[in-house]
Every structure is written in C-alpha cells, then in structure tokens.
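#struct-pred
JK: can someone run the complex with adenosine-5'-triphosphate? inputs below
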Amino acid sequence: KKKPADFDPKMVACWEKGERVPFLFLSLAFDLISNETGRIVITDIVCNMLRTVIDTTPDDLVAAVYLAANKVAPAHEGLELGIGDASIIKALAEACGRTESQVKSQYKDKGDLGLVAQASRSSQSMMRKPDPLTVVKVFDTFRLIAKESGKDSQEKKKNRIKALLVAATDCEPQYLIRLLQTKLRIGFSEQTLLAALGQAAVHNEQHSKPPPNIQSPLEEAAKIVKQVFSILPVYDKVVPALLTGGIWNLSKTCSFTLGIPVGPMLAKPTKGVAEIVNKFQDIDFICEYKYDGERAQIHYMENGIVEIYSRNAERNTGKFPDVVAAISRFKKSSVKSFVLDCELVAYDRVQKKILPFQILSTRARKNVVVSDIKVDVCIFAFDILYLNGQPLLQEQLKVRKERLYDSFEEEAGFYQFATALTSNELEEIQAFLDSAVSLSCEGLIIKTLDRDATYEPSKRSLNWLKLKKDYMESIGDTLDLVPIAAFHGRGKRTGFYGAFLLACYDDRNEEFQSICKIGTGFTESELEERSASLRTKVIPEPKSYYRYGEMMKPDVWFEATEVKLPPLLS
Ligand code: ATP
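RT: done, structure tokens with the ligand placed:
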C-alpha cells in the first residue's frame, strides 16, 4: 500500500506551478484512495490532493472539489449529468474505434464500464496526441453536458464525452466514466471531502494563527467546513470564501442565504415515553405529531418568489404549485420574507383527515399543473429558520416557535401548525402518542425548547428525538435495504430467485454492506415478480464497493439499484 506521504512529490511533479491542474493528478489520487479503506488515511490523501491544488493553482480548487464530490452543481440547482449507459457505450465505441456490441460484451464480462474504457484506451495508438485533460476542462465539459437539452441533446452529450475519452490517458478513462455515471464510489463520502478541505486550508494558512483555545486546529477546521457547508451547501461560494477570508473566518464569510436550502435537522430514535421523560429530566421540551408526508423547506423571497426544497435539498417547487400559489395567503402582512420548515401531508379536505404517505406518493413529481392535482396537501409547519431578513438558526426553539405562531394564520386543511404538547407527564405523553397514531401520524418528535435548542442543520441531533409506534412493537425502525445478490430457488421456487442478500448503504465509506439474507415473507407471485425485475440487474461479479462475509456464496450478483421496502410495507 502506498502511504499518503508518497503522494505529494510524485503528484506535484505532474505540472508546473501556475499551470492548470491535470485531470491525471486527480485520477491518480482517486486510484490511491481506491486502494485504501481507513477513513483517516483517505482523509489525508484527499487533504494532500487539495493542498497541492491550492498551492499551485487555487482557481482550480472549485473544479477539483466538485469532481471529487462527483457533482456538477449544488443539489438545489437541479443540474445533473443525465447520461445513460447507452450514450457512454456509444461514445466509448466511437472514441476507441470499436463496435458497440464489442463494448457491450466486454461490459458484460467486466461488469464495469470504467474498466472497459481503461482496457480500450491502453490498446489504442494515436496519430496525433490531443492536449492533456485538465481538471477545469473536465469539469466545464461536465457542466456543458448537464446543460444540454432539447433536440439532439443525447447526440451532443455523446460527442462531448467522446472528445474527453479521446484525450484521456493512463487511468483517466476509468475515472472519467465513473464520474459520468455518477458512480465514483472509491470509498469516501462528501463529509470526508469537507473535512479534508478544512485541513488543507489549515496547512495552506500556516502563517495565520488559529484563534486561542483551539486544541486541535485540524479537527476544528474540519468541523467548521462541515458546519458551514450544512448552512450554505454551495462549493462555488464556500471554496472562494475559504481562499480569500481563510478558514478561521469562514463562519463569518459564509452565512445562511435566502433561496439556498440548509440541510434539514433530523431526529434520533428512542424506544419509549419513559426514555424521553428520563433523558429530558431537567429540560423543557415540546412533543409534536410526526406527520408522514414529505419534508419541505419553503423559501419566500421579498419579491414574492417561492421555492420549495426537499429533504435532500432538491428543488421541489414544480411538484407543489398548489403550495406555491397558496403560501402567501397564510402569512401576516408584516411578513416580507421567511423560510419555513414543514411537512407536506396528503389531506382529504372533505372528510377533514390526514391521508397516508402512499397517497401522497401518487402525485406527479415534475411540472405539475394545479388543475391536474388530485391529491391535496396540507402544510404542517413546525419551524421557522428565517424571518424578514433575519436568520433564526441560532435562536432557541422557543423563540422560533413564537415567531412562527406570530407570523402565520392557520387555515384548516391548507396550513396548520404541527399539533404540539408541552408536558413531562408520562401518561399525558403516552395518550398524545396514541392520538397521533390514531390520526395517521407516524408517532411523535420531541424537541428541546430553550436549552440546547438551536437549529442544527444536517444533524441527527439528540435534541430532537423521534418516537414511532413501530419501535415499540418490533425492531427499532424500518430499514431501507438494497438487494445486491440472490440465490436460485429450489422446489416450488425453481425458476426464480428463492432468497436475497440485502445490503445497507454506508455513505461514510461509500459501500454497500450486506446485512441479512431474506427468503421468507414473500408470496410465490411476489418472488416471481421481484425475480423478473432483478434479472435485468445481474452483473458478472460483485462490485468492489460491496462488503459481505467470505462464506456468503450467492448464485447471482446485482447492480445496487433499488431500495425495496420490507414485504409487509410494500
Ligand atoms: P423516517 O424514515 O423514519 O422518517 P428519517 O430519517 O427520514 O426517518 P427522521 O429523523 O426519523 O427522518 O424524522 C424526521 C422527519 O420527520 C423529518 O425529515 C420530517 O420529514 C418528518 N416530520 C414529521 N413531523 C415532524 C415534526 N413535527 N418535526 C420535525 N420533523 C417532522
């Protein structure tokens, strides 16, 4: 194994100070990372890679960071590469002078288009050597690819990919393809990238002393970048601010911006009411219904423009034109701008009742027209993060609640405040939980009110606890698992899969870890149906980012594509 210390000299030798950073540098760094498994070593490699970029051409840092995050833009901009395997196969075939069917059959053998690209390039000789790829060139081309739309866009995308592939050398084709497929998966998450960015900045700013009281500047810097990014998840803003104002000023130079979603605060699970009363013994807390709908962060700008963001910071405005049209009706006239944290829940306005999540999920996702809407939603507001030009994230929940209640008026079935109870009586909370469940809610969320009660973006915080009916009746929670392999059925199940290996995605290590084998609980027709859909996902061998016991010998492996709900729920 190469140690991170080997990294710097070899890589820096790739280019002169002031020149654009070669894409090869990034690809070699990816290669180095893919041979490691430890988070600390990987963070060191990424940190060294970023330090080197800052040191030679700081301008390239934004592009390097985006590529390492395998993104072309912040989630809320909704810009995606949008390339299917078919376009990549076409581009690859044309770039390498092969037929599509040759590429396809090699893909079948190797199970990874990146490896196919790698093998194809190494057997190619060039008449004229194209200019070497740079990090900026690749990133700019990716953005152009993402922006292609309309007629012939697939053809144009393919031609751009082809031009990149023709210029790619060494291990570049493999990483180009993986980036294009948005399947970089070399074992590091965005959180590791953010930590490494903070650490790289500390090394870069050795002349500027950290503020007093900081024991470990590297750890503190990692924390600052993660925190800032959860409030302003836009590399185009955070990276330049880091370069000009430095790491120790970053929290001041980057702040909450209306129109850019913050990462939503999340809750930790608990097992029962007694545990809550125990945990929050000397603290005031509020219990709220946990609605089963879709998280929404509604941004209302002074010019009346409304944007709605999902739990993953994606722009959901086009999905809820009814909410966009109605929202200004519920605000008081003194309110000029705000950010609401709320749950959008399917609602029957005739029967005056909440409908289950399954009904909400039948709504179309994009470009919805108000007159076509069949499922109404009610906004259940539980928090306010910004009001009339003032961010409220640092305020205690008690203050935020007061602002929320003072700024809006309820309208039954359209806009309501989350039903809440302030009590520390066990029986009362238990009865409140029962009422929540009887009204089609998932359970309760319990939140600290005036101590440790600031809004913590992107955090699964101990200051928000969730209590679900399911926790008390069965295992802790429902699990989102992905089938990564299967075993052929026998007897009555001959001809389709009889059992599946299910995995859980670990985003810190970017791998799918097998968690259980499941073969019961399916009806024969369910098994037949699942087998048919999964048969199209078979790959020749397990992916490098699958983790499973050595004793596990499934008959077929799948591309990790679908999350299956447990049979009882599906
Ligand atoms: P699950 O899949 O069990 O909902 P999760 O990880 O998606 O888990 P949790 O941390 O369990 O999310 O719970 C927070 C979610 O609950 C929020 O994202 C939001 O969508 C929903 N929610 C419903 N009611 C409330 C409420 N009153 N306060 C905060 N979140 C609420």
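RT: quick notes.
The pocket of adenosine-5'-triphosphate is lined by residues 264, 266-267, 288-291, 295, 311, 343, 382, 418, 445, 466 (CB under 6 Å).
DSSP finds 21 helices and 18 strands in the chain.
JK: thanks, will look after standup
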